[in-house]
Specification:
- This protein is α/β, with parallel strands linked by helices.
- The chain has 4 domains: 136 residues, Methylthiotransferase, N-terminal domain (Rossmann fold, 3-Layer(aba) Sandwich); 126 residues, Transcription Regulator spoIIAA (2-Layer Sandwich); 91 residues, Transcription Regulator spoIIAA; 62 residues, OB fold (Dihydrolipoamide Acetyltransferase, E2P), CATH 2.40.50.
- The two termini are 16 Å apart.
- 43% of the residues are buried.
Length: 482
């Protein structure tokens, strides 16, 4: 029996999907390369973006057409708003929260083969209407218990060199545009002992890149184990421990490694976090700091609880303390009420900072979020124009920063084979994409020195500084997969 799993949305969903894979494979299923070869079809959904939800409907429509010809079983989980969940009950055979992942084998055994969705709806609805299982209705204590059930499942890592480690789940910020508090619940932190053990295991197995994940990673520990009468370290303390551990392991193995984190919130970004990143060699010199808007008025309507000046102070601290760091951001254009002047403020801030990468989104209301009750009063065409303007600013500033890197030598992580024959895909420590000539698949997953020879907008081009035949042996990842 084979399964096929499709994760949509952010890296948190990708990380959750690794635990879903572990549970499914514990039942004897093997992963299919093509979805048409699978009898079990699943989606890890994301209600945070409408486009991601649209892709779910497209996929399940095709699967339900297939179901008329052959027996397949479908399921959906992930970050799902209640309104989306109610619709999914009529389309999927199984709908469950990630906190009930460990029960998936019993759900599958119960249904055995595909049954009409109408027969399953009443049973599935229990999984969504019970106040203990709906994230938006969960207390923090309940969300902690549900999250810990998920975290205790050993992931089946998708990659053998690039891993994601969740350190926190949920959100307490309640930005007015955001659905995360209603899909993942109140903010809880994973025990540091579990995090350190997972990270140490990955480092010893030779992973080159490890990313610590959370909705607001730098608020780690603030709403943590004290719920059970215990205390927990701060995010800065966690980073310091991981950095020291990684530096020691890297020195013993002779292999470089990079540790990232995403995403922090400007409100909780402290100077000590920046100082620790600067001081520790294995903590990657890349910061993803969401701006969302360069207007104080818009930030207020978004309930971001910080001002542009606060954000600029953090950027100044990063640039002064870690001059080599790349800076990424998130920006929303066309938020409710955004005027031409407010958008112009965002453009000026973006130009002044000069990001290496920006993920720009056109605002769309999400059911459940506060702003969904407000008029979506910025026309679609205006949103599109503002998106294109900021995309042009990004291309200009990122191109200028990339051009300054030409002629330098830098370590790069070989991530795969490029679609263009004869080239590897790779990225720098700052997560800038770079194309490297080569055809040796054994280089994938290794950090090697490279010479940057050319820049073309958001992409760099270069070549390895050491011939592939003279590079050290690839690290063994034996035991990372089942």
């Amino acid at each position: 029996m084979k399964y096929f799993l499709v994760p949509f949305g952010c890296q948190m969903n990708l990380s959750d999907s690794e635990r879903v894979r572990r549970v499914i494979e514990s039942m004897g299923y093997s992963e299919a390369e093509k979805e048409e070869d699978a009898q079990l079809l699943g989606i890890i959904a994301c209600s945070v973006r409408q486009k991601a939800i649209d892709r779910v409907y497209s996929r399940i429509h095709a699967w339900n057409l297939r179901k008329r010809k052959e027996p397949v079983l479908t399921f959906v989980s992930g970050c799902i708003l209640e309104k989306d969940r109610e619709k999914f009950l009529k389309l999927f055979d199984l709908v469950f929260t990630m906190g009930r992942l460990e029960e998936l084998p019993e759900m599958i055994r119960t249904y055995g083969v595909t049954t009409p969705c109408s027969q399953n709806a009443a049973s599935d609805r229990l999984l969504t209407e019970d106040s203990d299982t709906v994230p938006s209705k969960m207390s923090r204590e309940e969300n902690l218990l549900a999250s810990e059930k998920l975290w205790h499942i050993q992931p089946r890592y998708i990659s053998d060199f690039d891993a994601y480690v969740p350190i926190q789940n949920g959100c307490d910020k309640f930005c007015t545009y955001c659905a995360v508090p209603y899909t993942r619940g109140r903010e809880v932190s994973r025990p540091s002992g579990e995090i350190l053990a997972e990270v140490e295991d990955l480092m010893k197995k030779g992973y080159s890149s490890i990313t610590l994940l959370g909705q607001n990673v730098n608020s780690y520990g603030k709403n943590a184990r004290h719920l059970a009468g215990e205390s927990e370290m701060s995010f800065a303390g966690l980073l310091e421990r991981i950095g020291a551990m990684g530096t020691e392991i890297s020195a013993v193995t002779g292999r470089p490694l990079w540790v990232y984190f995403t995403s922090p919130h400007p409100r909780d970004m402290s100077d000590d976090v920046i100082d620790i990143v600067a001081a520790c060699p294995v903590l990657a010199k890349q910061i993803h700091l969401p701006l969302q808007s360069g207007s104080d008025e818009v930030l207020s309507r978004m309930n971001r609880n910080h001002r542009v000046d606060d954000y600029l102070r953090i950027v100044e601290k990063i640039r002064n303390t870690i001059p080599s760091a790349t800076l990424f951001t998130d920006i929303i254009v066309g938020f409710t009420g955004e005027t031409d002047e407010e958008f112009a403020s965002t453009r000026r801030v973006m130009e002044d900072i000069g990001y290496d990468m920006a993920f720009i989104a056109q605002y769309s209301p999400r059911p459940g979020a506060v702003s969904a009750k407000w008029d979506d009063d910025v026309p679609h065409q205006v949103k599109k124009e503002r998106f294109e303007i900021l995309s042009g600013v990004l291309k200009e500033t990122a191109s200028r920063r990339n051009a300054a890197r030409v002629g330098t030598e830098t370590p790069v992580l070989i991530t795969g084979m490029d679609r263009k024959p004869g080239f590897h895909t790779a990225r720098t420590e700052g997560r800038i994409n770079i194309r490297i000539p080569g055809t040796d698949p054994h280089l994938i997953g290794r950090i090697l020195p490279a010479q940057i020879e050319k820049s073309n907008g958001l992409t760099l081009f270069g070549s390895l500084s050491v011939p592939s035949g003279n590079t050290p042996e690839s690290p063994s990842h034996e035991g990372t997969q089942p």
